[in-house]
Amino acid sequence: MDGRLQQERDRAARIAFTTEGFHASVAMIYEKLVDREYESVKDDLKSLIKDLRDIIKTIEYGEDF
User: Fold this and answer.
1) Which string of b and e fits 30-60 if b means at least 16 CB within 10 Å?
2) Which of 6, 13, 20, 33 is most buried, by CB atoms within 10 Å?
3) Residue 40 in domain
């Protein structure tokens, strides 16, 4: 297999892994908001925001995802 093709597949796998984690986090946040678990949802929200900021920093520094 071509090295470039493998790199692209690895990159796609990293993106999929990360976004699957976001989906799980958002689902948990939804459930906690519906259940009015406001205090515990704060940590989930802060964690998601941190992860999203890390992606922004990666992009801003010109690094590949």
Assistant:
1) eebeeeeeeeebeebeeebeeeeeeeeeeee
2) 33
3) yes
